[in-house]
Automatic annotation (TrEMBL):
GO terms for molecular function: translation elongation factor activity. This is Elongation factor P-like protein. PANTHER family: ELONGATION FACTOR P (PTHR30053), TRANSLATION ELONGATION FACTOR KOW-LIKE DOMAIN-CONTAINING PROTEIN (PTHR30053:SF14). Residues 132-187 form the Elongation factor P C-terminal domain. It comes from Pseudoalteromonas rubra. Residues 69-124 form the Translation elongation factor P/YeiP central domain. GO terms for cellular component: cytosol. Belongs to the elongation factor P family.
Length: 190
């Protein structure tokens, strides 16, 4: 059983008999309090989507939920539903756009290393790889002679995600992005 301070975003915990996915964590250290940090977690019920905000002390023990992670790839989008296909047994997983709104900005049909989080047979969330490769759809023209470490400019990717890139990068380039920080890492290997 992990402490509240060890819980990460997108973890599934068993809370009051319900399986909850942690979507956001805010750490705070109250002034003049000998006890340490507080962790405010925004959690969503995997069954009905209900939102719960709860604050835990750093040392409080939490129960991880029973879940499995299945390797999958994006198959197609059907209106508000994203359909993923299990890479091992070809099971289709339907996940509503709202429950994975942040993650879909990082994925397309070519994204490798996706994991579908399945709780009690129901797909509830998506685990992203640490980095993804996406193509820049639109950015200001590259500046000749700009150094790789100089100023940055915003670039809109084909998925709609906007990241800051060095000035020498141009539209149509394929780049590598850190999914945890939404930051440009490098040009992708072609």
């Amino acid at each position: 059983m992990p402490k509240a301070s060890e819980i990460k975003k997108h973890a599934a915990i068993d809370y009051n008999g319900r399986v909850m996915i942690v979507r956001d964590i805010e750490r705070s250290v109250p002034q003049g309090r000998a006890g340490g940090s507080l962790y405010r977690m925004r959690m969503y019920d995997v069954v009905n989507g209900g939102k719960v905000d709860e604050t835990f002390k750093a040392e409080e023990m939490l129960q991880l939920a029973d879940l499995t992670r299945r390797p999958a790839m994006l198959s197609y989008i059907d209106g508000e539903e994203y359909v993923f296909m299990d890479e091992e047994d070809y099971t289709p997983y339907h996940i509503h756009k709202d429950s994975i709104a942040e993650q879909v900005l990082f994925i397309n049909e070519e994204t490798k290393g996706l994991l579908i989080v399945v709780v009690e047979g129901t797909p509830v969330s998506l685990d992203l790889p640490s980095s993804v490769e996406l193509v820049i759809e639109e950015t200001a023209p590259s500046i000749k002679g700009a150094s790789a470490s100089a100023r940055t400019k915003p670039a809109t990717l084909t998925t709609g995600l906007v990241v800051q890139v060095p000035e020498h990068i141009s539209s149509g380039d394929k780049i590598k992005i850190n999914t945890a920080e939404s930051k440009f890492m490098s040009r992708a290997d072609s």
